[in-house]
Design brief:
Blueprint (H helix, E strand, L loop, with lengths): L16 E3 L6 E3 L64 H6 L23 H8 L4 E3 L15 E8 L19 E9 L6 E5 L5 E4 L2 E4 L5 E4 L2 E5 L11 H12 L5 E5 L1 H10 L3 E5 L3 E3 L4 E3 L2 E5 L2 H8 L9 H19 L2 H4 L2 H14 L1 E3 L5 H11 L7 E5 L2 E3 L9 E3 L1 H12 L13 H7 L13 E6 L6 H13 L3 E7 L8 E4 L4 H11 L6 E3 L10 E5 L22 E3 L8
């Protein structure tokens, strides 16, 4: 075993899973006696020394972002710390089958979204793998909470970093790494569905100012820039993943809660850990640039072949990055299916290998920077059925400013619709009614009688980014919508991300009427617990998602038919 465990080097991973008579669960034995270690080991840096901890008890970041994405830690050489494959008799199928819904293994970056096996023995996994993770403090760019009651948005970043063990043969030696592959993973508030939106690296956009933490603990503000590629939101001028998170919010209006980042090596190690990933080609491919050499039809790829598959861009479609995104989405969907298969979830040895590879590959924000937190997140995400995960690419078009387009820009109408759907938590998947029980309860607040416009009493506050938004909204409500009892209460005490309407139970008819006028989603309505006393107004607080008077905050009820989409449960062949 490696330095984070206490097992014998020649001991099979399956042999280390033992039945705890006190709990009735299988747990990972980390020493020869089978006893649990009383205390998790201190995290270690790449040199093997203990990492210092800050005052909050969290590990300090292992690298600053002075123009550099954290380097990959040294990988274990073949044969080191690996036992033999577990025999069928030792796989513990019964216990793992009963707990497989507690496990979510999803690959990060271009490979998929693998976090950690949230199964029996979670404490043992904490002991073994907690030291593998690298973390970055992104400040107020993300959330300090692992999950919440509302939607959850995670930015998955695959960097093109080419330094570090295993990456020497790819591209520019010494590259600091940029945001090469980017997926905004939006999880619905009721956890019935998710949308994985790919963001083209060549999208021309504006990058806002961002604050990054330096190695000495001080903060540095990196000035924003305009009209540049999205991929330079990371690495360039010392920008960290928090800068990429802020850029996504500026583009979409969606606040990103957490990030997960990997580099090239993760594709190789994770695909190998699961025993290969099935892919399908419409025609045979032999690409001298990526070294991809596969026949037509279905193949299983891992290691170098898996990396070649997700890197190639000259073998599909019009050889653009947009076509490579489709191939990567196919790979990710196949990886998710492999991760959640019985072959993986009932194999302790494979779970052990996978968790080790995933945690070594990951750099995450401090809000989810421990195995305990990742396990909690995994259990939350594990409620999503694979068939309700939809891949979509941010709607873009060729850059009209370029005679021969190389970059892309947003396609305003379609992109606006998709962003509004994400902000209003509208699913791109047809979720069955049984799975929509929680959603139906939430939507029920919009069902019922409506008050007349003149009977709506509301105070409007500005908690967003548009100066004078409250005053402009009140003027519009009074003069154009007939809501004469609306009042401008100026700025809210603090800025908020999403617009809210607070009301009392006996004001429900007014709330529904105002929601219709403003285009508010059901998630924006916050009903109190007691009725009003006397004359009392509802409180409408405009958030960062408010784009202007008359602009609905909800998107269409369903995605436009011509929007490119792919389901995570469907195997397709790359063309």
């Amino acid at each position: 075993m490696d330095g984070h465990s206490r097992g014998r080097a020649d001991e099979s991973p399956a042999d280390q899973w033992v039945l705890n008579p006190r709990t009735g669960n299988y747990e990972l034995r980390l020493d020869n006696s089978g006893r649990e270690s009383p205390e998790p080991p201190r995290a270690r840096d790449r040199s093997g020394s203990s990492r210092p901890r800050d005052r909050s008890g969290s590990r300090r970041e292992s690298a600053s972002f002075r123009g550099e994405v954290p380097a990959q830690r040294a990988r274990r050489q073949p044969g080191q710390g690996r036992g033999q494959q577990p025999s069928a008799a030792r796989k513990g199928r019964g216990k793992f089958s009963a707990r497989r819904r507690k496990a979510l293994l999803w690959t990060c970056g271009v490979t998929a979204f693998v976090i950690v096996a949230g199964s029996a023995g979670a404490y043992a996994l904490y002991q073994k793998f907690n030291g593998n993770l690298d973390t970055v403090d992104v400040g107020d760019a993300g959330s300090k909470n692992v999950t919440g009651d509302g939607p959850l948005d995670i930015l998955v970043i695959g960097t093109d970093k080419r330094t570090g063990e295993g990456n020497e043969g790819y591209g520019d030696k010494g590259s600091t790494g940029h945001a090469d592959t980017n997926i905004l993973f939006h999880v619905s508030a009721d956890r019935t569905n998710a949308t994985a939106m790919s963001i083209p690296r060549d999208l021309i956009t504006d990058i806002p100012d961002c604050t990054t933490q330096q190695a000495d603990g001080s903060d540095k503000v990196v000035p924003g820039t305009r009209n540049v590629r999205f991929n330079v939101s990371l690495g360039q001028e010392g920008r960290d993943p928090g800068c990429t998170m802020r850029t996504v919010k500026k583009i979409t209006g969606v606040s990103v809660d957490h990030f997960m980042m990997v580099d090239f090596n993760a594709v190789k190690t994770l695909s190998t850990a699961v025993g290969g990933v099935k892919v399908c080609l419409d025609k045979a491919v032999k690409d001298p640039d990526s070294h991809l050499d596969l026949p037509a039809g279905e193949s299983t790829v891992q290691g170098e072949d898996a990396l070649a598959f997700v890197r190639t861009r000259h073998s599909f479609g019009n050889q653009s990055d947009l076509d490579r995104i489709k191939v990567q989405q196919q790979f990710i969907g196949s990886m998710i299916r492999r991760m959640k298969s019985d072959d993986t979830l009932t194999d302790p040895g494979k779970l052990l290998d996978l968790a080790d590879a995933a945690t070594k590959a990951l750099t995450v924000d401090s809000g989810i920077g421990s195995i305990k937190k990742l396990t909690s997140l995994a259990r939350e995400l594990g409620r999503i059925d694979t068939k309700n995960i939809t891949f979509v690419t941010m709607p873009v078009k060729d850059n009209p400013a370029e005679p021969t387009p190389v970059t892309v820009v947003l396609e305003p109408q379609k992109a606006g619709q998709l962003f509004a759907m994400l902000r209003s938590d509208t699913s791109l998947t047809e979720v069955k009614k049984k799975e929509q029980a929680a959603r139906s309860k939430q939507q029920a607040v919009l069902e019922g009688s409506r008050a007349e416009a003149a009977g709506i009493r509301v105070d409007v506050l500005n908690g967003g980014d548009i100066t004078g938004a409250a005053g402009a909204t009140v003027e519009w409500l009074r003069n154009e919508q007939g809501v004469t009892q609306s009042t401008n209460r100026a700025n809210a005490p603090a800025k908020i991300d999403r617009t809210t309407l607070a009301y009392a139970p006996d004001q429900a008819d007014q709330a529904r009427a105002l929601a219709d006028i403003m285009g508010l989603p059901a998630t924006a309505l916050k009903q109190g617990t007691s009725d009003t006393e006397g004359i009392q107004a509802m409180v409408l607080t405009l958030g960062a998602d408010f784009e202007g008077v008359g602009v609905p905050l909800t998107g269409p009820a369903k995605a436009p038919e011509d929007m490119q989409r792919a389901g995570a449960d469907t195997a397709v062949c790359a063309k």
